[in-house]
Structure formats: structure tokens, C-alpha cells
TrEMBL record:
Domain Fibronectin type III-like: 646-716
Top-level taxonomy: Eukaryota, Viridiplantae, Streptophyta, Embryophyta, Tracheophyta
PANTHER family xref list: BETA-D-XYLOSIDASE 5-RELATED (PTHR42721:SF11), SUGAR HYDROLASE-RELATED (PTHR42721)
Keywords: Glycosidase, Hydrolase, Signal
Origin species: Coffea arabica (Arabian coffee)
Identification of the protein by name: Probable beta-D-xylosidase 5
Amino acid sequence: MTLEEKVQQIGDTAKGVPRIGLPRYEWWSEALHGVSNVGQQGSKASFFDDVVPGATSFPMVILTAASFNETLWKTIGQVVSTEARAMHNVGHAGLSFWSPNINVVRDPRWGRALETPGEDPFVVGRYAANYVRGLQDVEGTENVTDLNSRPLKVAACCKHYAAYDVDNWLGVVRESFDARVREQDMIETFVKPFEMCVKEGDVTSVMCSYNRINGIPACADRRLLKDTIRGEWDLHGYIVSDCDSIEVMRDRHKWLNDDAEDAVSQALKAGLDLDCGSFYSDYGANAVTQGKVREADIDEALRNLYFVLMRLGFFDGSPKFDNLSKDHICSQDHINLAIQAAREGIVLLKNDNQTLPLDSQKIKTIAVVGPHANATDAMIGNYAGVPCRFTAPIDGFQQYGKVTYATGCQGVVCKNDTMIYPAVRAALNADASVIVAGLDLSIEAESLDREDLLLPGYQTELINQVATRSKGPVILVIMSAGGVDITFAKNHPNISAILWAGYPGEEGGHGIADVVFGAYNPGGRLPLTWHKNEYVDMLPMTSMPLRPIDSLGYPGRTYKFFNGSTVYPFGYGLSYTTFNYSLAATKRSLDIKLNKYQHCRQINYTDAAFQPSCAGVLIDDLESCDNQNVEFSVEVKNTGERDGSETILIYWSPPSEIRDAQIKELVAFNKVFVQAGQSAKVKFNLNACKSLRYVDYKGYSLLASGRHTIAVGDNILSFPLSINYEVSE
């Protein structure tokens, strides 16, 4: 190819070279929770029409993450990639999908929480690895040794790298925001899920974000891109910009006062292979002729891109998937999985006097009211395509009784109280009332962060009036991504039960009704903390540190660093049955011998704490990491009368004497189904260097000596673990 031909292939619309038979390719497609029709305007790779009218739309990621079911996460990825391949076979989809979004939800106001797996970096990373494996893996080739030639079902992309979680808050927008981030937080929180996505998921692409990080645009930071993603993590694929990020570098960040050719050269040298936009195509050739970047850098980008297309079979075909057709899109099995995903993610937050599940033999009439009672589009959130069908809440409840419907509000914003009384009147005569309230994309979305954590408009008034006047039990269902301060409902004596349903996908109404009437026993857990509204008055969204800033009065962020009161904590969720735990730990100490060339490191302790002679050692310096494991088993007994699933959450707390250490950190989890009266034993094996890693304020990853704690759930059970160093002379 000539230079001019080359630069036309490194934008999201690769124009091809007819002269040598190189076809055109559109890189941008989305598959966040199903095949989407979001893409480049005028040349979308994935679209719907009479030939392919829709694809299965699963719950938004925040709800799927609440299932804490890694098998489900991977299975959804497999179904989405099957439908994507089937659409590709009839010319309706590309093969590269810029999903999933794996940014950690640092602040409860963030508008894109619905797209992500929540606030814990480990959960986010495990979701990423499983969903990506589901999208990409071709059965039988998962363990191919040459990963640059490993076949792909479709190509996934983990985004947005890194420290991206401010969209549009009080005039601060992502395109000009400079995230001032400590190295400690980068390693612990912002970068960790991406490392897991590349190393454990073998993702084929990482997307850099719009924002600057400590003054440098993410898409022009060689240390973040070439040195880390491709070098340290060994990416087998390409790095792509968020759309128009290079233009944003020039026009919004005004970084180094670069002109277009400067910005292009900076990005190419940093390791950015693909420009979602036109800057590479428009200015790449000039950047080379002006001597600002080498043509060899463009050649390297092309190699990274076309290796992926070859692994996808774009040029030679993929016979293994040739049989996939329209019959494999929106199949009943796929729709059933969407129902199951909604059921598994729903979280039971309150259930006074075991009001739920409702008995369909006794509850014959149901008032289903509220702005989401007849929700359809709201249930599939954003980055959604056209669903196979919708089952709204009122449709789901009609399977169990006679439904009386009243919206109670004119939309989610609920600007006045004029429609409340019809909802109250419906509740006056019903055996049970279900209020379906919450948020939607007009409140929390990409480019739209929240300013408070309250229900919009008159929704609170609607809920209170219906609860006060209802004839039968009242069940409140909240649709949202971020937490909502519903303390009033939590404490309301007439609201017997509360469910959180996220944005539950095309079959959301089916899933909600099945949980309310006991066809499914809820087992979901909150993937992020539900803060009280006063939390957002304590600190600006733009303050990036996760640890408290005592000098400014800023509290900590996420469950790892916030020790105040909440509406509902991370990991919270009830069941219709009860579980008892027992713990068997086989090892309660690790004694590690150091040779005379291994150095002990100082750790910042609290003032009165005893300081051991060897406070900690760099994990990279420990030769015996593979053998430093903590094995134990947890037995879960279902002591209730219903079968159910329980999520076992394993937390680690570092020695309490370490200053500014996390309160606790999730290091393992397992979802287990247990029949009534039966028990299940789950074994855990934690590698100390991976699971008990402490990152100090200098950015060093250490294994600290002293008394660590391993806890099951919210301190249901725990045991101490001592780490001791013996230094050889």
C-alpha cells in the first residue's frame, strides 16, 4: 500500500484498497448487553431491518453483575456473539465490538453506572474476563499457545482506559477533564480491571478514554498504552481511541498547543493503533511527510489491526460459524436466558414479615403503578439495539392475577402530582400493590451525571400516598443503575418489601413478577454502595482520591474506604430462605524465608503501632509467590424451606496498623445453589501475592507482614492470617 492508502485503513471506517483487493471494513460495533445498532452514522456495521428485526437484549450490565454468577456472565457473552455471527452472515453486523465498559463506579453520581459491573475492581475485572471469553472464545481453541493466531468468534474491547468516570457534572465534561490520580489509586482501582481483562480475558482491544490523567491525554500516554497494555500485559490485538479523542486532544485539551499533525504523531507514538474518527485518515500522511512520525509506526498499527481481522476469518471465512442464521437470533433459548438473567440480578432489599413471595392463590388482583409500571425502552438502557420483544412489568404480573394499571406520574421526571390519585385509587381496591419507580436515561446516562441521589420530582410523594392508602401489602420496585436514597421507603411501615431491578432488559417484567410471586428466589447482591443523599454534599465528583481527605473533610469512596452509614451497603441482598455458614481454614500463617539480597520495605504505620523489623517485601522480589497460598473451605447450609442461591463473598483486611489501608477488599466470590435443608461446601485458594497485595502511597505493590484478616460476608465468619518474614544471613 502507498502511504495515502495506509492512513485510510487506520480510522474506524477502513476504506479498503480495491487496487489490491483489500475490502472495506467498519470497526465500530457495540455489544454491551446484546447486539446494538449504535455505530458510525452513515456506515453502521450492525443494523436492524425486515431481514433481522431485532436481537436479544439482556439486562444492563449493572444488574447482570449483581448476580455474581461468573457462568452467567460468560454464557451471555456466548449468546451475544452467536447472534452477532448470525447477523454477520446475513450482512447485518461487523465482527469487532467495542464492549464491555469496565470502568469502576467511583462516585454514585456517575451517569454511566448502568453500563458497568459496579464499584469493586475485582468484580469488574472478573466480569470483564468472563464476558470477553464468552464473546471471543472459539470452542476447542481457548488454550492455543500462539495467542496472536488464536481464532476469534468476535473481537471484544475493554473500555475506557483509564480513570474515566466523570461525564458531565455541573459543567465539568469528560472531553476537558483532567483526572488528578495518585499512583496508588491507579494500580488498586482504575487500572486493575483492564489488566485482568487483558491477562485473564485475552481481549483483542482496549479503548483509551477522552480525559487527561495527571495532565496527559490518555490516548497520548505512551506509558499507559505501549509500555503497559502492549508491553507489560502483552495485548494480542489493537488499541483504539474513544471516538474523536485525537480531535479532543487538540481542540478541548489544547495539549501542548498541538496542531492536527502533532496530535496524530503523539497518539501513534504512544501506541494508539486505531482512531475512532477521521484524524488519522485526514492528517496521518502529512504527519509522516512533515517528519513528525515514522511510516513504520503506521505499519505497526496496521499489523496489529489486520492480525485481528485474520483471526476473525474476515478474509478467508470461518466455516465453524457458517451455519448460524436468523434462526439463531431471538431464539426461545436466548429469550429464556434473558429472563433468567433478570431474575438472577434482582436484589431483595427489604422483606418485612416475609411478605414476599406473594401467594397467587390469595392475591387475585394487583395494582401495578408508577412511572415504570409499563416500562419498555427504559428496561434496556443504553447501547441497546432493537429487542426481540418486551415484557413490561404489567405484562409480567398479568401471569399471576388481574392487573390494574396507573402510571401515577407523567414520566420518570414526575413534575407534578396530578396523576397520583388514579394510582392511589387502584391501590385502594387491589389485594396487593406494586409500585415500579426509579430513574431512566433522562436522569443518569452517558454525558449526564446526577447532582443528587433522590428520586425525581413527585415520585416520593406518589410512593408515600400509595403506601398509606393501599388495601393490601405494598411492594416497591426500583429501576436504576446508581443507588437511590430511599431511606423513607426503607423505614415506611406500610412498604413491606423493596426490590432493586436495575435496568432488567427486554424480559424485565417477567423477571420482576417471577421474583415477587416466588417462581424464583432472589439471590442478587448490590454491586455498589447505596449512599444517603447527604454523601454528595460532602465532596465534589471531581475529587479523584478514593481514600478520605481529612484536611478537606472528604469521606472515602466505595465500600473499601467509606466507613459511614449507608442506605444499603455493597454486597447487600436478602433471600426467601436462610443460610448458615461454617468455616474450615487449613492455614493460618505464612512463613516466608528471604535471602540476603531481598530487601524489606518500610510501610507507613499509625503513630502508636508496633513496627516489625521487616514490614513488607515487594511482590516482584518474592521468588516463592506461586507457593504462598491460603486454602480454606466454606460450608453453606440452607436452613429455610425454599431452595435458593447464595453468594459467598470473601474479604481481606490488611493489618490494622497500616495507615490509610483499605477497610476491607473483596478477593473472591462464588455463587452456589443449595436445596432446602441441604449443604454445599466451597473451597477457596487465595494466592497471597495476588489477593493480599497492599499498594503503598508510592505505588509499590507489597506483601505486608503482620496480622491479616480473611472474612466471609459481612464478618459472618473470619479468621486471622499471620504473614512472617525470616531474613537469611
